[in-house]
Amino acid sequence: MSAPTKTHPELSAVFNKDEERVNWHDETLWWIRQKRDKSANSIPEWEVLREKASQIKSNALSNLAGYLVSFEEKAKANGIIVHWAADAQEHNQIVHQILQKHGIRQLVKSKSMLTEECHLNEYLEKQGLEVIDSDLGERIVQLAKEPPSHIVLPCIHKKKEEIGDLFHQYLGVAAGTSDPQILTEAARVHLRETFLTRKAALTGVNFAIAETGEFVVCTNEGNADMGAHLADVHIACMGIEKIIPKRKHLGVFLRLLARSATGQPITTYSSHFKKPRAGQEMHLVLVDNGRTIQMGREDFRASLKCIRCGACMNTCPVYRRSGGHSYHNAISGPIGAILAPNLDREKYADLPFASTLCGSCTNVCPVKIDIHQQLYKWRQVIVQEGYATSAKKMSMKIMNYTLSSPGVYRTAGKAGRWVLKYIPFAVNNHFNPWYKQRDMPEVPKESFGEWYKKNVK
Amino acid sequence: MSRDKILAALRQNQPELVPLPAAMPLERVEILELQAKFKAMAEGIGSTVHLVDEFAAIHPLITARFSGEKRIVSTIKELVSAGIPAFEFDSDPHSYEDVDVAIFKSNLGVAENSALWLTEDQMGIRVLPFITQHIVMVVPLSAIVPDMHTAYQKIGEAEYDFGTFIAGPSKTADIEQSLILGAHGPRSMTIFIYA
Ligand code: SF4
C-alpha cells in the first residue's frame, strides 16, 4: 500500500510498475465505456443527436465573439458580475481579488477542470488561502497531494484501501477502513461542515447560454449546489468555448453528456444559475488561456467543441493502460493530447504520440471531434517544428510502460489475447468486443506489433 | 483590456459563420409509454416511485414513510398537517441544515431520464432540495414529457432566477466505481405521480 504522503511522480511510477493495478485500471475504464455503449444504444436517434451537437458547437464557435458579448450583456442584466481573463495568471488574480475584497481566506470548490488548468489551488495556497475541493474524487486526490487523473473520475487510479489510509490520516476514520459506503459517509460529514462554514464557493460551468445569460452546472453529488447556495459569494469560472446559443440547445447536450461520460441517463443535478440569490454576490470569470489561438488553427479548432465528458479517455487503449498522470497535463487522454500542445509545443510534444490512432475516441465523442485525425496532424506539426526528438523520447517512455510492462506484451499468446481484448483495431473476429459495436473503427492495414515498432523507434 | 483583446482575437480567428442546425424532430422513433418509462428510469437510478390515483392518497404515504424523522418541511400547502409542517422562509440558508425531509411539487418530469424540474419559487429557498437528508417530489402525471427536447420546449422562455433538473438521490461512484447514494445531498428520493 502506498503511503499517502508519496509524491505524484512516485505514485505514477508505482502505478505503472504494478501489473495488476494496470489491468484493474484498464478493465474499470472499459466497463465504463461499455455502460456508455449500452446507454447510447438505447437512444435510437443517438447519431442524429451527436450530429446536432456538433453543428450547434460549429455555429457557436463561428460566432463566439458575438455570443460572448450577448452572454455578457444578459448575465450583467441578471445581476452577475462578469470578468474576462486573458490567461491563467489573470484568472487566478481575479479570483484572489474577489476573495480579498470580502476578506475571505477559505474557499470551497466544486469540480472545475479550468481551475486545474490554471493551477488556481496552488496559486491561492501560496497567497495563504485555503482551498477545499468538494467533489469526493477531487477531495481524495487533494488529500493525496496529486492532481486528478481523469476529468470526470478524478481518483479512478486509486484503490479503496489507499483512500482508507488517506481518510484515516486526515479525517480520522478507523485504520484499515476500505468500505466505500463508510468512506463516503466520512467524506459527507467532513464536507458538510466545510459547506456550512465557507463564505465563498467556486464552481465550474458546463454550459453558458448566450440567449439568457444563465449558466448550467452538472454534478451527481450535489456539491456545486451545496457550496453555491450556502455561500455569500459564488464564483463560477469557464473557458470561453463553453457558450451555446440557446437554452433549448441544452436539450441536446444534456442528453449526450452523462450518457457519454458514465452511461447515466442524466447527471443527478443540472442546475441553471441565472441570477444571484437575494443578498448573494455572483461572479463569472470568462477565460481565454490559449483558446483564441486554438480558434485560429483550422486543423485543431474543433477541439474547442469538447464538453469534457471523458468518453475518449475511457475508450483509449493507451489511456487505460498508462493512467491520467502519465499525460502530465490537467486534461489527460486523447483530448488533453490535442489541447496541451496548443499551450506549450515543447513541453507537450510527446502527447500526440501517446495514441494508437485507432480512432475509437473519434467514434465515441458526443460532439464528433475528429480526435485521432487531430492527433495525427499534431505529430506532423511537431516534427516540422523540430520537437520530434523530445517527443519520441517521451513517447518511448509512455509506450514502454503502457505496452511493454511484464505480462502485457510478454508472450505471443498473452499479447495476442490482450490485443484482441483491449486494442480495438487489431483483429476483427468474435473475440473482439469492438466487432459487435457499431462504433467499430476503421481497421489499419498493419498488425499491432508492426505499428508498435514503427511508432516508438 | 483582456475583454477587448479576447474579442478581437476571436473576430480575427473564428471561421465563417456556420448556420445552426434544424431543431431535433420531436417525434421519437420509440413510442414512449411515459409513465412506465419514467418509473423504470427513476427506479434504475435509485428513486422510489409511487403511482397514486389521486392527490389525497399522497399524505398518508408520506407520513407512513417518514414518521420517524424530526424535521419535515412541505413547500406544498395541500400536504401541510400536524405531522407535516409548512416550509417557512428564513433568508439564512444555514438554518435548513437539520432538515430531514423536504417536499416539493414539480410541474415537469422527463420520462427518458426521470429528471424533475424545480425552480426557485417551488423550492422555497435554493439550498433546500440539496441540504435535506431526504427529498420528496410530487408530480402530476400530465406533467411528464418524453425527453429533454420537449422539456425545454415546455420551459420555453420562462423566467426563473434559479432552476434545476433533479434525477434521483445525490450519488457518487468515486471510490472504485461503487455506487453510493447520499453523497452530499439527499440520501433518498421519493416520487409521487398522481393522476
Ligand atoms: S473530446 Fe469528445 S469524447 Fe473527449 S472529453 Fe471532449 S467531448 Fe468527450
From TrEMBL, chain A:
GO molecular function annotations of the record: 4 iron, 4 sulfur cluster binding; metal ion binding
Q: Which domain of life is it from?
A: Bacteria
Keyword check for Transferase, yes or no.
Answer: no
Q: Which InterPro entries match?
A: 4Fe4S_Fe-S-bd, 4Fe4S_Fe_S_CS, FTHF_cligase-like_sf, Helical_ferredxn, LUD_dom, LutB/LldF, LutB_C, NagB/RpiA_transferase-like
Q: Which GO terms describe its biological process?
A: lactate metabolic process
Name the keywords, alphabetized.
4Fe-4S, Electron transport, Iron, Iron-sulfur, Metal-binding, Repeat, Transport
Q: What Pfam families has UniProt attached to this entry?
A: Fer4_8, LUD_dom, LutB_C
PANTHER family the record matches? LACTATE UTILIZATION PROTEIN B (PTHR47153)
Q: What is this protein called?
A: L-lactate dehydrogenase complex protein LldF
TrEMBL record, chain B:
Q: Where is the LUD domain?
A: 85-193
Q: Could you tell me which InterPro entries the record lists for this protein?
A: FTHF_cligase-like_sf, LUD_dom, NagB/RpiA_transferase-like
Highest taxon of source:
Bacteria
Mind telling me which Gene3D superfamilies this protein's record contains?
NagB/RpiA/CoA transferase-like
Under the heading PANTHER family, the entry gives:
LACTATE UTILIZATION PROTEIN C
State what protein this is by name.
Answer: L-lactate dehydrogenase complex protein LldG
Name the species this protein comes from. Pedobacter cryoconitis
